[in-house]
Amino acid sequence: MSDAGAPVPEPTGADIMGAAILHTLFAQSAVGLHVLDTRLRVVRANLLPDDVPAERLAGRYFTDAYRLERPHEAERVLRGVLDSGAAVRGLVVRGRLVDGAGPDRSLKVSVNRLDDTQGRTLGLLATVVDVDEQEKARTRSACLAAVRTRVGRSLDVAATCEGLVAAVVPVFADLAVVEVVDEVLRGSDPPPGPLGHDVPLRRVALRGHGADGHRDGLVGEMRRLPARTPYALAVSDLRPRMVRLGPRTPWLGTTPESARLIEATGAHSMIVVPLKLHGAVLGLVSLYRCRDSEPFEENDLPMTLTAAAHVALSIDNARQYERDHVIASTVQRRLLPQRDDGNVALETAHFLLPGRNSGSWFDTIGLSGARTALIVGAVDGPGLQTAITMGQLRTALHALAGLDLEPDEVLARLADTTERLAREREALPPADRLLGQSLTGTCMYAVHDPFAGTCTIARAGNATAGLIAPDGTTAALDVPEGPRLFSGDSAPFATATFALDEGSVLAFFSGTPIPAGRQPAGPREALAGPGRSLQDLCDNVVYNLPADAHPEGAALLLARTGVVPPDRFSTWDLPSDLTSPGVARALMRDRLDSWHLDEETIEATELIVSELVTNAVRHGAPPLRLRLILDRTLTCEVHDGSPVSPHLRHARTADEGGRGLFIVSQLAAHWGTRYGAGGKTLWTEQEIGSATDDH
Description:
Elements: H1 13-28, E1 32-36, E2 42-45, H2 62-65, E3 66-68, H3 71-84, E4 88-97, E5 105-115, E6 121-130, H4 132-150, H5 157-168, E7 175-181, H6 182-185, E8 201-208, E9 211-212, E10 222-223, H7 230-237, E11 241-244, H8 256-265, E12 267-277, E13 280-290, H9 300-335, E14 346-353, E15 360-366, E16 372-379, H10 384-401, H11 407-426, E17 441-449, E18 454-460, E19 464-468, E20 474-476, E21 481-482, E22 496-499, E23 505-509, H12 523-527, H13 534-543, E24 554-561, E25 569-574, H14 580-594, H15 599-619, E26 624-630, E27 633-640, H16 660-667, E28 670-676, E29 679-687
Parallel strand pairs: 18-21
Antiparallel strand pairs: 1-2, 1-6, 3-4, 4-5, 5-6, 7-8, 7-13, 8-9, 8-10, 11-12, 12-13, 14-24, 15-16, 16-17, 17-18, 18-22, 19-20, 19-23, 23-24, 25-26, 26-27, 27-29, 28-29
Helix pairs in contact: 4-5, 4-9, 5-9, 9-10, 10-11, 14-15, 15-16
């Protein structure tokens, strides 16, 4: 029996309700609804936000209906949902209706597969929501978060500005330029606004598509802002400017550099924001959007102002640090030796590697017997107080060096001094900002003896020492490491003594050496090479340091060892009896006559030698030895085998003795006693005139 002519079934209530819901959804929903068939063509769509009639989309492929930035990627997503049935929700794409006007927008797309009751695939349901404003707000928020994360981590103005351009490009702008008032870069106070047209600004950072500031030489350039331009207006009234750019922009002719940059990058929109703090101008930020990017809008200004305020504060912090660092570095330089006094048996050269800290130092101190103390050290920490503490330690070492102590004893007494300094800092008032800043430091103290041909070294902390032999071969010196200064560690210091050939070079470094392989030549290779001047060796070490090596700073001290020339000293062994003073006077006078010293010096030396030898005969023990050394001063040394120390006494009128050392102290500029394994040596130093200039 045929079904032809059978009555059509009446729609049920559910069918009527479903049709009503579907009609209402497509007619009144603010969300763009699109029904696609299995070939991804639009079957039905509702009225769209751009007021484009829905009928125009019917029969078009979905990726043709919308001009998407990545149509192939969108088609892949749609076919994936069609094949798998797994829905896609909240996919953000850029595009717009082909028939719609205006720029591309951010669209949030969700896709579900449509199946009938028997499980057959009918097509897709795609919803499209315009989220352009939300995405712009999210981009601004993400950009501001990036600025807060990247900017302010460094106390370096250049690094601060680089952090800004890295945060905004390409997320918020296609090109970013930061210029800072030149004097601010030098640590000076920023000028109050408005900024005069004659105040120079230096370009510190530049980043953007098609522009490389470092490669193109744009970073580092300095300019004065031309009048009647957005740049000049922004630093005049301290307000931002948002400007559309084009071929007929009138002010571009007054700033050729900016015009060339704008033309090269295709910039069409610009925001200029002054970097200001408490009414003072630190610099200027210029942001550009280029080519296909949307121009800036009013909603972009608040974020830009907030970012600029954060950058200005970070630059000011870096500026203040730079100023404090300049002051501290100046004090550091003033506290270091200002000239090399030289030594008859030692040649020295040094280099101070600048860094964040201002506590590195070096020193050479002349000791009795033509010996020299060689010192490198460092107090950790930035700022003026670090430089002052370094100066205190250097002064203390000068006082300790005059006591003729062994290097380990010098460091032990220096450690006592640092502990007192640490206790003084701990006792500061609670409001003092130094209270919470701990002290730590290192020091290496060495004594070169040209007559013994040795160098005795002790160290506190990780300062390093090396030796370059006369043939150019190098070796590290194994010196026992003692506790760091200010550490409170009471462990004893130890010494190491090294025999040196004439012409050897000692290298002392206040920091840890650079591992081999991080620079073209390692520290040893940089120091190698016989016959080179010490300053060349110093410079070569610096040339071979990586750019990031020792950011805290360090001191390098080189010393080429020699011997006292035979015509500049004489040594005599004397008998330990009462004839020795007379013999010593005769030998001394003959030698000083050959050195062409004046009679006054000879007579004073005669008294000194007579008293010292007499004292050694009466109160000392064999062997007895006299030595004269002619250098910048005239040194007299009398050695005997007794460890008993002599004492200076002021003799009374009735005393027959006791005036010897008192007389010596009046005739000599300096005098003292030096102890060794074989007894003691009494020495004096006398200032001499110009009669020895030919010697």
